[in-house]
Amino acid sequence: MNKRTDLTQALGQIRSGDTIGIGGMTLYRKPMAFVRGLVRRELRDLTVMGMCSGFEAELLAAAGSLGTLRTCYFGLEFLGLAPLLRKAVEQGRVKVVEETEYTIAVGLQAALMRVPYLPSRDCEVGTDFFRIRPDLRRAPCPVTGEELTWFPALAPRVAIIHAPMADEQGHTWLGGQHCVDAQLAMAADYTIVTAEKIVSTAEIKAAQGGAGLVSFMVDAVVESPGGAHPTSCYPDYPLDVVHLTNYLRQARGGGAAQYLSQYVHGSASQGDYLKTILEASRDPA
Q1: For 94-105, b where at least 16 C-beta lie within 10 A, e where not — what string?
Q2: Whether the predicted pLDDT of 284 surpasses 50
Q3: pTM strictly above 0.85
Q4: What is the CA radius of gyration of the chain?
Q5: Residue 52: partners with Cβ closer than 8 Å, 6 or more residues away
Q6: How many CB atoms lie within 10 A of CB 121?
Q7: Each residue of 24-43: pLDDT tens digit?
Q8: Measuring CA to CA, which residue among 5, 15, 12, 256 is closest to residue 156?
């Protein structure tokens, strides 16, 4: 079954108020072309969940699209904090649901098993985690009587995952760190893959490690060259540190309006965006 579509049609799956799962990790393999599309659609009150959040959450917060963030970390790694996201959280415009890598992994696993909770021994006991996460439960196992921590199921309505390559049926080569992308894809009601290039199934099979996502996990495939920029997408391109540094200079100097105007609202298509980036890289300023 050919699942190939374009970015506009894929973006039509998202509504204001939705819970979306974003693949990748911090500044690696984030579906930034899709995120820029979300900003252009002026969606509001999105709940974003992911293992570790980075520039995608910062951009959604800067545009006023983000309502809730479920993650164990948000920031720009060695470049420092995500300034406008932090400001939005401090002002109460964005709610953060504190996760750990473990709670996300177990919550997704519970969703995949179609159970409301999954238990664990002593996880988070002795910390303040139960104070900030009242949805966690300490209760005895109904079989053994042992006191356990019970973690609620987590599932996005739509998952968006960027990859170096995919075929038209949805078989996807992730390369490098897979994070929890497979679990996000299976737990979501609808999964969108944006890929640097669309290739044959044979090429996916021949790639080291084979398919990280297989066809039944994926509902739509969008060809999106440069679709993770300015985050990295191994082995196609590294993190664009200069681009992110320029963003931080603008964000800390009075907001991201100029950045959004240039790189989001001024880019009607992915091709225009890439042209803008190439031109900016030649500009000594």
Answers
A1: bebeebbeebbb
A2: no
A3: yes
A4: 19
A5: 25, 26, 71, 72, 73, 74, 101
A6: 10
A7: 999 999 999 999 999 999 99
A8: 15
Bridge partners of 191? 159
Q: 223-253 as b/e, with b when 16 or more CB fall inside 10 Å?
A: bbbbbbbbbbbeebeebbeebbebbbebbee
d(CA 272, CA 270) in angstroms, rounded, equals: 5
